[in-house]
Amino acid sequence: MKPLVAAVAVLVALATVAPKLMRLRIRFFKWLHWTWAARVTEEHFERWVLVLRTVLLVLAVALLFFGVATKL
Question: Which domain holds residue 41?
Answer without folding.
Answer: 2-67
